[in-house]
């Protein structure tokens, strides 16, 4: 993701100008940003001080790292699960079926050639 060319203090100053009565179009023109960027910032940072903006970014970064860690553990769990036998599965005449003679708590898979 591209880093912003505006600091947190600059974003706070730009957002505060609307409260002072300056139209949004003029604020965006002076700052060199689009109105979409202005309203995205307003949605995310409205009412926050620059120090609070910095803390919000730190929390978002930490949350992203934790999400990646959890996702990695999930994929690690599934990759270490036992694999089904692959003997004869490439043959077109082979089919897999569950053996009905065993109890339901056991999933026995048998390879049946026809």
UniProtKB/TrEMBL annotation:
Region (Disordered): 82-114
InterPro entries: Homeodomain-like_sf, Transposase_8, Transposase_8_domain
Positions of transmembrane segments: none
Protein name: Transposase
One Pfam family, short name: HTH_Tnp_1
């Amino acid at each position: 993701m591209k880093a912003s060319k505006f600091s947190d203090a600059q974003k706070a100053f730009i957002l505060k100008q609307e409260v002072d009565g300056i139209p949004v179009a003029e604020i965006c023109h002076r700052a060199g940003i689009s109105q979409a960027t202005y309203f995205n910032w307003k949605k995310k940072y409205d009412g926050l001080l620059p120090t609070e903006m910095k803390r919000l970014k730190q929390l978002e970064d930490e949350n992203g790292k934790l999400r990646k860690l959890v996702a990695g553990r999930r994929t690690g769990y599934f990759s270490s699960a036992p694999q089904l036998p692959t003997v004869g599965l490439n043959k077109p005449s082979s089919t897999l079926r569950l053996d009905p003679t065993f109890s339901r708590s056991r999933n026995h898979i048998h390879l049946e050639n026809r």
